[in-house]
Amino acid sequence: MKLLKFLPLIIFLIVSIFLYNKIKYQKELEPLSSALIEKKFPSLKIKSLDNNDNINDFIKNKFVIINIFASWCAPCRIEHEVLKSFSEEYTIVGLAYKDSIENIESFLLELGNPYKKVFYDFSGKESINLGLYGVPETFFVNEDSKILYKHVGPINKMEFKKIISGIIH
Amino acid sequence: MLPEIGNIFLIISFLLFSAQLALSFKFNSLDLKYSFFDVIKRLSFFSYILVLTSFFILIINYVSSDFSVLNVYNNTHTNKPLIYKITGTWGNHEGSLLMWLSVLSLYGLLFLIFIKNLPKRFAFKVMATLALVNLGFVGFTVFTSNPFIRTFPIPSEGLGLNPVLQDPGLAFHPPLLYLGYVGLTIPFSFSIAALLQGEVTREWAKWVKPWILISWIFLTLGITLGSWWAYYELGWGGWWFWDPVENISLLPWLLTTALLHSVKVTEKREGLKSWTILLSILAFSLTLLGTFIVRSGLLTSVHAFASDPARGIFILTFLVIVTAGSLLLYGIKLEKIENKKNIYLVSREGGLLLNNIFLCASAITILLGTIWPLVIEATTGQDISVGAPYFKIVFLPLIFPAIFLSGVSINLNWKVTNLDYLYSRFWKLMIVFIFLVSIYYIIYDVPVLILLGVAATIWMLLSVIGDFFSKLHDKSKGFKINLNKTKKIRLSIYGMYFAHIGVAVFILGVSLSEGMKTYYQGVESLNSKIHVENFTITFFKLDKFKKENWFSETGTFLVKKNDNEFKMKAERRVYLDTGMPSTEAAIKRNFFSHLYIVMGQEQPIGSGKRIIRVYHNPHIIFIWLGAIIMAFGGVVSLIDYRKSFFRKL
Question: What ipTM was reported for this prediction?
Answer without folding.
Answer: 0.73
